[in-house]
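can u do me a favor
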């Protein structure tokens, strides 16, 4: 039971985290194989558990306690957090380990001392239940102490896929309602631009906060230093400290100075237009979009939504885009937003119906 849990935990849940740890500890000289690493670690932990079971001679109903040190090691291995300067461990995790170790240690000593008073025949048909319960508690302990932060794991998975240039798999990731890191949003935006889908799907993700989500700063990549060069190599330029805080200007300079390859120009155009939308610079967007796209239904969805919004909130728009279907959708959006109930209830209803539109981002995020 412990061997199965350990392997699945390492292979399915913690593979990207352990790969990151190995990269940090080896300064990038070695790489981690999820299958081989999971098998080796599991075999070592099981060997330790069996060795302690033989040495401690615990009563059969409680022999699972001999696997507790293995569970502690499993939790410690997966309990760190990668940082720009190494690996950090939360103080609360060490507290859990220390307290639980003391309690289990006392229990093991008492069981060894009074083992002769436990009648083995009495437990012939029920030995498995106490052991199963103990294993379940150990698994819960590993889950509590181990690093199960969704935000971190999604970022590490995205970094791994970026390193392998698996852009389709990045776009298949579905974080749900969990707020993602800026690095994850930047990797997702890059993957969308590679697939010519940035203007169609950028605002479907939750947690976007501005154009800064399109760039990654020097220390935001956790699993591989070279990812930064791979990330910016697509555009032929890398922002300095000033441009890092101004993605709009960064993409504008690339376009004006023709720094990117001609095959990447359309992607940079979409990134520039998206940076304007993310910062709600809708007037500048309206005057810029006509340079790159004809104002017809071939426009990406979010650009069409932005132009419908722009036409409604400006008395003298510099360009006018007509789309009867989107106009009706926007009217429904306005009707719902004017509902005379609590503001939070209105926002929840709008998020359910229009949460993946630029209109919702512009007004509520």
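np, heres the sequence
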């Amino acid at each position: 039971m412990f061997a199965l849990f350990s392997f699945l935990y390492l292979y399915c849940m913690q593979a990207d985290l352990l790969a990151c740890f190995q990269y940090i500890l080896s300064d990038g000289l070695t790489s981690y194989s999820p299958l081989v690493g999971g098998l080796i670690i599991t075999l070592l932990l099981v060997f330790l558990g069996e060795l302690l079971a033989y040495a401690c001679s615990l009563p059969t109903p409680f022999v699972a306690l001999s696997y507790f040190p293995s569970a502690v090691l499993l939790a410690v291995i997966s309990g760190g957090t990668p940082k720009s300067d190494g690996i950090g461990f939360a103080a609360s995790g060490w507290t859990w380990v220390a307290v639980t170790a003391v309690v289990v240690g006392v229990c093991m000593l008492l069981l060894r001392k009074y083992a002769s008073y436990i009648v083995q025949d009495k437990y012939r048909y029920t030995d498995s239940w106490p052991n199963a319960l103990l294993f379940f508690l150990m698994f819960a302990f590993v889950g509590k102490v181990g690093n199960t932060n969704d935000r971190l794991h999604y970022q590490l998975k995205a970094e791994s896929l970026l390193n392998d240039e698996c852009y389709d798999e990045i776009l298949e990731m579905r974080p749900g309602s969990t707020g993602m890191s800026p690095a994850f949003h930047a990797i997702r935006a890059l993957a969308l631009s590679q697939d010519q889908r940035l203007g169609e799907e950028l605002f479907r993700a939750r947690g976007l906060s501005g154009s800064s989500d399109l760039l990654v700063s020097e220390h935001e990549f956790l699993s591989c230093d070279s990812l930064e060069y791979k990330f910016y190599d697509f555009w032929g330029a890398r922002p300095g400290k000033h441009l890092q805080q101004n993605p709009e200007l960064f993409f504008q300079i690339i376009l004006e100075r023709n720094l990117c390859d001609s095959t990447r120009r359309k992607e940079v155009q979409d990134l520039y237009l998206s940076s304007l939308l993310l910062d709600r610079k809708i007037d500048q967007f309206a005057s810029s979009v006509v340079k790159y796209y004809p104002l017809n239904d071939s426009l990406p969805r979010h650009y069409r939504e932005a132009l419908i919004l722009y036409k409604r909130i400006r008395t003298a728009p510099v360009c006018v885009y007509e789309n009867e279907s989107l106009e009706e959708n926007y009217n429904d959006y306005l009707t719902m937003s004017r509902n005379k109930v609590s503001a939070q209830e209105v926002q929840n209803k709008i998020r359910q119906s229009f949460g993946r539109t630029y209109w919702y981002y512009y007004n509520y995020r």
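Residues 289-365 form one domain. hope that helps!!
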